[in-house]
């Protein structure tokens, strides 16, 4: 087999941004899928962006007919559920690293991942169900998601709690006989107004008096048509309603679901939540890099538009913009290395061992992508703030991801806390340096200087 650097199948735009060390790790199945995803996004999705938007304007809270058409095409081409890691029996066979290369390409169009059933929150929910559900639950809930005949949302955040500390989640969840009774409020989770939404995976407090705060919560599947659930309003994000999936504020009033809908067992919600988040954060970050590449391309086009010549020069001929483009390229390539390293770490050592690099990715990628897209908007000038380009929506989504799956501060705290644990090793190391210095100073006949 040709190496990852000489294989002719790796020639072309689908692979040009993939680092050499990653190319060497791509198996034939991954090369095939990456190329197929690239072809699908470039020929089926990008040319239809305005058609999708036009169909959505006619019916805001339903998936446009074009989405259903493209999902059928993607499914027929074997591009469904590519994200599910290869240690699951339901997986199509890609590693986290291999799928990361696909996710970047999908990110070039906001809704392209949905055409391949690789969109948030579906990816995290499918992996959760595959990892923690019983065979009976998988048949009832997982199979329809993977076949694309159902859709789901994850419901965790609450309006009157600091949800970055999930131990504060307080929606009341009482287990009574063969039922779970739910009362309280939730934020986010996809809109009930879209009738194609099938069920919520909901985290609630079932044992508030448990002395171990990590064992107080339970995760349960709640079908969207269960009596007692009310959507109070749509939550706009930075002014966008994000139809047709959207977000909402919800009221649960004596909502009753079968006890058999509990996932893994009562009191095990935190185990489930941590198992869900790692891969999903990597998917978010790679999609962000894909959308940022799109913004970067638009900036290059604007820089070389012959119709735009302030003071008789192309926008790209000004030294400040040449340096801007260089800095964007450097930062984009840096981000890709950070996230691919996290994906590779997860493949080699598992999600738990990859927590630190996953957190690094989640902190740095949305921040830098926000900054790069902002620069691209600046290059475009006034038009960069309007619907003439996708730049405002790209920027808004990247800003949103700085909060989704946990705010920056929570991830920085995790990384910083882990780093602080390494301090003692360095203290001892530098004490050893000093002892050696003192010895060498005596041997050399020079004065030992103590700066402690």
Automatic annotation (TrEMBL):
Asked if the keyword Thylakoid belongs to this entry, the reply reads no
**Record-linked Gene3D superfamilies:** Acyl-CoA dehydrogenase/oxidase, N-terminal domain (1.10.540.10), Butyryl-CoA Dehydrogenase, subunit A, domain 2 (2.40.110.10), Butyryl-CoA Dehydrogenase, subunit A, domain 3 (1.20.140.10)
GO MF entries: acyl-CoA dehydrogenase activity; flavin adenine dinucleotide binding
- The Acyl-CoA dehydrogenase/oxidase C-terminal domain covers which part of the protein? 270-418
The record's GO CC annotations read: cytoplasm
Q: Which keywords does this Swiss-Prot/TrEMBL entry list? A: FAD, Flavoprotein, Oxidoreductase
One of the GO biological process terms: fatty acid beta-oxidation using acyl-CoA dehydrogenase
Domain Acyl-CoA dehydrogenase/oxidase N-terminal residues, every copy: 35-148
Q: Which domain of life is it from?
A: Eukaryota
Cofactor needs: FAD
The UniProt entry's sequence similarity note says: Belongs to the acyl-CoA dehydrogenase family.
Q: What is this protein called?
A: Acyl-CoA dehydrogenase family member 10
